[in-house]
């Protein structure tokens, strides 16, 4: 594997840590600023919305510069946002810092996915994307628990200062190791936007929103659910998040491996199993051992969908993958924001701390339905010979074949 993938993984590690560590530190941050837990939840929702809007915005701004330079600029933005969070005198400033950091997130993973895929042979692309996302998943095993521990013992501000330092490390790695790839010739914003006319690209993104929403409906409220329902001590939330992270690492690598072989079957299995496990979590949350196993499974099944969905978008948005790739990262976060909000609604409605798990199960089941629909449309297109069916790089589309004959 090229060393440049390591630099991308370090950047991903920092970004993953800042995105997820807030969930373990919500009580501390809320207490410090004197706001309620649902209000502090805006630090999760605000970040997710920032990723969603920042992904296309930053990618469009970056069409004028090389991908390497853009990745470096994004790491710079990430460092500034985390320093702002670490030093925030008031809740509003903390929220602003989260949003600044989040603007870098989507475009970093979107452009990073394209760069990672370009660094390797065609049959290794999903594996290379998974390799970069390993930084994000390892963040959940190492970065988030350590960050939570530091935050609970020394103070949450120290956690954000450390994350900013990780950003500096990522920036240096990208500067040194990522080759300066020329911008693809002739790809303008118009081409990038054309990808969104493709129903398959939109379906893949919708699967991302719902599938990932399923995961985060349960995980956003993991701290209150595990302490109030399962009866864990506050300190146990850290190692429960480690289990979630270990599941993510395993699921991401398995998903990357099989997405290069059998992409759609991989999605059916992971989304179907995710819906079932989330529904069962409403029951298993009452037992410490079963709750712990379920959390690991949610991480594994949720992240097994990431490389296949990301590759599906890159394949279907042939010729202009950068914007579609970044927007799909935004879609993951739209899922996070949507489910954190829906989970908060059902808790506020007095349905209890396990209620978000039902929300999650319904979202994951919806994603599975879309996967089945997407495959059915693809089969229909193949039969009728419509171009959208053809996966990039595999077979030339009808127009390309026609053009070749003229």
UniProtKB/TrEMBL annotation:
Keywords: Cell membrane, Membrane, Transmembrane, Transmembrane helix. SUPFAM superfamilies: MFS general substrate transporter. The keyword Nucleus does not apply. The chain crosses the membrane at residues 42-61, 73-96, 102-121, 128-150, 156-178, 199-224, 236-254, 266-283, 289-309, 330-352, 358-377. It is a multi-pass membrane protein. Residues 4-383 form the Major facilitator superfamily (MFS) profile domain. The keyword Transmembrane helix applies. It is found in: Cell membrane. GO terms for cellular component: plasma membrane. Gene3D superfamilies: MFS general substrate transporter like domains. One of its GO terms (molecular function) is transmembrane transporter activity. This is MFS transporter. It comes from Streptomyces aquilus. The lineage of its organism: Bacteria, Bacillati, Actinomycetota, Actinomycetes, Kitasatosporales.
């Amino acid at each position: 594997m090229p060393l440049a993938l390591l630099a991308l993984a370090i950047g991903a590690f920092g970004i993953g840590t800042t995105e997820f560590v807030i969930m373990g530190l919500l009580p501390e941050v809320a207490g410090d600023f004197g706001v309620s837990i649902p209000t502090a939840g805006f630090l999760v929702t605000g970040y997710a919305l920032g990723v969603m809007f920042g992904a296309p915005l930053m990618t469009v701004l970056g069409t004028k510069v090389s991908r390497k330079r853009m990745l470096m600029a994004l790491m710079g933005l990430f460092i500034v946002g985390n320093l702002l969070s670490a030093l925030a005198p008031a809740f509003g400033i903390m929220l602003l810092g989260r949003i600044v950091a989040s603007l870098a997130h989507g475009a970093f993973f979107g452009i990073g996915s394209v760069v990672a895929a370009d660094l390797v042979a065609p049959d290794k692309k999903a594996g290379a994307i998974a390799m970069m996302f390993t930084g994000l998943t390892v963040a959940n095993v190492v970065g988030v628990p350590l960050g939570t521990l530091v935050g609970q013992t020394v103070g949450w501000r120290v956690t954000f200062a450390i994350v900013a330092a990780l950003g500096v490390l990522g920036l240096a790695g990208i500067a040194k190791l990522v080759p300066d790839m020329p911008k693809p010739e002739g790809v303008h914003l118009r081409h990038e936007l054309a990808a969104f006319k493709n129903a398959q690209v939109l379906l893949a993104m919708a699967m991302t929103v719902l599938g990932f929403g399923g995961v985060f409906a349960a995980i956003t409220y993991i701290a209150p659910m595990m302490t109030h329902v399962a009866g864990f001590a506050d300190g146990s939330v850290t190692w429960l998040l480690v289990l979630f992270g270990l599941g993510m690492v395993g699921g991401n690598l398995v998903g990357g491996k099989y997405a290069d072989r059998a992409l759609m079957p991989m999605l059916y299995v992971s989304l179907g199993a995710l819906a079932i496990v989330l529904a069962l979590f409403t029951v298993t949350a009452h037992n410490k051992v079963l709750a712990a196993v379920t959390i690991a499974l949610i991480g594994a099944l949720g992240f097994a969908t990431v490389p296949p969905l990301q590759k599906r978008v890159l394949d279907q948005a042939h010729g202009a993958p950068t914007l579609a790739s970044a927007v799909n990262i935004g879609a993951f976060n739209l899922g996070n924001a949507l489910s954190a909000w829906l989970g908060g609604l059902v808790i506020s409605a007095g349905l209890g701390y396990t209620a978000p798990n039902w929300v999650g199960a319904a979202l994951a089941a919806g994603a599975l339905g879309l996967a089945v629909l997407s495959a059915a449309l693809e089969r229909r297109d193949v039969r009728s010979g419509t171009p959208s069916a053809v996966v990039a790089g595999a077979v030339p589309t009808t127009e390309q074949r026609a053009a070749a004959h003229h």
